[in-house]
Amino acid sequence: xxxxxxxxxxxxxxxxxxxxxxxxxxxxxxxxxxxxxxxxxxxxxxxxxxxxxxxxxxxxxxxxxxxxxxxxxxxxxxxxxxxxxxxxxxxxxxxxxxxxxxxxxxxxxxxxxxxxxxxxxxxxxxxxxxxxxxxxxxxxxxxxxxxxxxxxxxxxxxxxxxxxxxxxxxxxxxxxxxxxxxxxxxxxxxxxxxxxxxxxxxxxxxxxxxxxxxxxxxxxxxxxxxxxxxxxxxxxxxxxxxxxxxxxxxxxxxxxxxxxxxxxxxxxxxxxxxxxxxxxxxxxxxxxxxxxxxxxxxxxxxxxxxxxxxxxxxxxxxxxxxxxxxxxxxxxxxxxxxxxxxxxxxxxxxxxxxxxxxxxxxxxxxxxxxxxxxxxxxxxxxxxxxxxxxxxxxxxxxxxxxxxxxxxxxxxxxxxxxxxxxxxxxxxxxxxxxxxxxxx
Length: 440
Known about the structure:
CATH superfamily of the largest domain: Nucleoside phosphorylase/phosphoribosyltransferase catalytic domain
Order of helices and strands: HHHHEHEHHEHHEHEHHHHHEEHEEEHEE
CATH topology of the largest domain: Pyrimidine Nucleoside Phosphorylase, Chain A, domain 2
Strand content: 5-15%
CATH architecture of the largest domain: 3-Layer(aba) Sandwich
Radius of gyration: 22 Å
Number of helices: 17
Number of domains: 3
Distance between the termini: 37 Å
Shape: globular
Structural class: alpha/beta
Helix content: 40-55%
C-alpha cells in the first residue's frame, strides 16, 4: 500500500480505513515511511481531521505497535486503573492520587511523562527522589505494582513505539495541536498499559494547553469517545488551570507538598478537591465504590488513616528509592542554595495569576528543559504561593523563590511579581474547580 496514496486520501478530505491506518503505523515502526511522508500525513490530519472511527483505529494500531501489558497472571486482586492529565503548572495530583487509589484497593501502573512546554512533568518530580527508577524494566514495574499497589513510571521502549516516532515528527512540524492526534497519542500508551479504567483530567485556563473551556470540552469528549470505542472505560473531568495548583511549583518542592498532603501536615483545598474528585470517579468506575459520594469518602478515609502515605513509601522503596524517604525527606530532597520572598506591592486581594508565565519562569530557573538534552535542577521553583482571592497587605510574601544562586533568585522574584495581580476588591474566582464531562 503506497504511502503517497494514503496521504492523498486524507489530503483530499477522505476517510482512511483500518488497513490504510495500519499501514501508516507499521511504517512508523519499521521505517517503511520516511520522515517526510509521516509529516505529510500528520499535516493532512491536522488540516482535515479524523472521524471518531478513524481516531479509534489509529489509537488501536498505535497501541499494538509494541507490547501490551497483561496483568491477568499477576492475580493482583483489584482493578487496573490510571489517570491522565493534559498538563498544568504545579500539577502534582498523580503523586497523591496513585497511592490513595492503591490504599483503596486499586492497582495503578501510572505511565507518566516529563515536562512539555511550560507544564511540569510527573517523572521530573519523581526524579527528585534519589535512586527512584522512573524507567524500570517490565519485571520491576510488575513487582512494584504487586507490592505497593502503584508505580509512577515512564513509557518503556516497547510501549506504543509508533506514538514515540509520530510525536517527535509532530513536535517539529507544527502539528501538535490536533485533537485526534493528541487523543491517539494519550490513549495508545494507556491502552498498552493494560488498563481497565481511566479518568482524564483535562485542564483549561491560562496555564493549560486548552485555554478555552470550549476547546477543553472538545478534547475531553474526543478522549472519552475514543477510549470507550477502543474498549477502555473512561470518564473525564475538566479542571481549572487559571492559577498554580497547590502552593508550589518545581520538582522537589512539589514532592515536599505531596508528602505534606499525604501526611496531613498541610493540604491545599483546591488540590484536595481535584485529587478526591478524580479518585472518586476511578473508584466508581472500578467498582471499588458504589457511587461518586462513596468514592470521595473512601479517598478521604485513606488520607486520614495514613494508609495512602504508607503506599507512597512502599512505592518509592520498591522502585529503588530510600526505604526511609517518608520519615526523612529533608535528608534526601536537597534545598536550593538561594531563596527570597516576593513581596506584595500594596494592600488588596490577589486577583489574577499569569500561570503559563510562571511555568516558563520555573524552566528559566533550570527546573525544566529548553531542549530534550538539558539537565533539570530539581531544587528550584516557587513555594508558598497565595491563591486567587487571598487578601494581602503591602510587603506580605506572595510566594518564595528557590534558585541556584542569589542573582537568579532576585531576577525570578521580579519576574514572578509581574505574574501576580493585586486588586482593590476580591476577584471573581471564575469557572468551577471541576466540571464533569457528559458521557452521552
